[in-house]
Amino acid sequence: MPWEASPFTARKRSLSIVLFVSHPVVGLLFVVAFGIYVGRRVDRAEQFEERVQSLEAQLAAGIRN
Question: Any transmembrane segments, and where (predicted)?
Answer without folding.
Answer: 15-38
